[in-house]
Structures are given as C-alpha cells and as structure tokens.
Amino acid sequence: MSDTIVTDLLSASGYRGSFAAPVPDSLLVNGVGVYNCSDTTDTCTTQTIPDVTVVPNKKYRFRIINHSSHGTYAMLAYSISRCLTYLIS
Prior knowledge:
- By secondary structure, this protein is mostly loops.
- It has one domain (23-89).
- The protein contains one helix and three strands, in the order H-E-E-E.
- The protein has one helix at 2-9, and strands at residues 28-29, 32-33, 64-65.
- A three-stranded antiparallel beta sheet has the order 2-1-3, with no helix packed on it.
- Strand 1 (28-29) and strand 2 (32-33) form a beta hairpin.
- It is elongated and about 55 Å long.
- It starts with a helix and ends in a 24-residue tail after the last strand.
C-alpha cells in the first residue's frame, strides 16, 4: 500500500487527487484497526470497533496508535466512561 501512495503522490494527479500526504483513515486499538474497505481495491477485511468491558479497580493497558503523518491530524481524543486514565507515552 505504501508503494502505491508514494507512486501516486509523485504522479501528475497525486494520491486520491491530492499532492498532500494522506489524511489518516484508521486507528489501531490494541492491534485492531477499523477501516472502510469500500475505499480500497486491495485485499481488506472490515473489523468491528473494539469494545472492552472493564472491571472496577483493575488495571488495563490500551495501546492506541494513530498513524497520521500530519501534525494537524495527529491530535487524538478518547474517553473511557467513569474511569481515571493515565497517559503512558
């Protein structure tokens, strides 16, 4: 996929009609990503959005990866209802 993006960015029409780096269209949560497979001709399997039930007073680690190449799109907001969270970077 990255070869396609680079080749298209260097072409006269750009990648998806733009010369800018691609806008992020997926996010990984604990290794599971959600992507709209109708946007690609590559092999793609639609995943369900991760849903985790947490137990009070137990520790959990969520690995959240935003693969954005844009500084303006790199900001990520998330929430976990009624839970105290700490960021580990």
